[in-house]
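Could you join me in thinking about how sequence relates to backbone shape in a protein? We need material for that, and I hope you will provide a protein of your own picking. Once you have written the record down, we can walk along the chain together:

…
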Amino acid sequence: MKDNLEKQIKFLFDAWVDEMNKEVAGQSKIRYAGPVLEKEEYRGLLDALFSNWWSGGGMTFDAERSLSKMSDRNHGLLTNSGSSANLILMEAAKELYFEDGDKILTLSCGFPTTVNPIISSRLVPVFVDIDLKTLNLCPKVLDKALAKDSEIKGVFVAHTLGFKSDINAL
């Protein structure tokens, strides 16, 4: 009975997604933000609901493993937002590597939640320009900034608008 109900709910939800996408396609305005989900993402949400693991369950652990593998890192950690991820990252880095007042290099053109964790961790942001082609920090600018200010203790950049920084070169 339960499996049959889940199948019916998924079938109806697929129909709902189809109708919703028709409405979105017919709108004259383009949304600048908000979720854009297709059937696959909605099915994942339903699977999580039906498993009673809405967060921190098997899907989360699978995603964290995939994230770490994809980014060639030892570990991955999912958060509720990039802003929260930035704050966690900066607080952890502060605990391991920095002291109050240390200078952290970051981009002059970026999202505020890259700068705010530096300030809230009692560190000092040092701003550098972006590369207009990539909207990120380029190695030449980093080298110049480090040569100019030997007191810079760290670098904190986000991938601007989804354009990946060349972290390995940096």
Notes: The chain has two domains: 1-20+39-78, 86-159. The two ends are 56 Å apart (CA to CA). The longest strand covers residues 103-107. The helical segments are 2-25, 39-51, 58-70, 82-97, 112-120, 139-148.
